Prior knowledge:
The protein is an alpha+beta fold and 117 residues long. It has one domain. The protein has helices spanning 21-37, 105-116; strands at residues 3-9, 12-18, 44-45, 50-51, 57-65, 73-80, 85-89, 95-96. A six-stranded antiparallel sheet has the order 2-1-5-6-7-8, covered by helices on one side. A two-stranded antiparallel ribbon has the order 3-4. It is globular and about 45 Å long. The mean pLDDT is 89.
Amino acid sequence: MPWNLTVRARGKVLRARYQQLGEALDAAEDAARDAAQSAPRKAVDAKIRKFEPVQQVVARVELAGPERLLPKVRAGIDVRGDGSSEAYLGRTRRQLIEQRKRETAYQALRRVLEDQG
């Protein structure tokens, strides 16, 4: 069953399809790590409010699957302007995935999705 990967970074949208969850998770981690390396940003002053780098999402990596039309699972990783990342479940109502001790956002996402499947 296919897994769809969507990467939104630097004003571009890249899409890919993978047959196995493991392949999709590996590709998602690679894309998020690439985005995190180029993430360092400065604070943005919007006259009314100042947005610090940690408040800015510079890349969003989303996984959807395994069904094609109405995916049962929607999850992903947000890469922040300071290079940090956080994993989430859901699409419109995002639920942050809590990381365990010494666990990265990528490992937390992998743990939750593999437990569901």
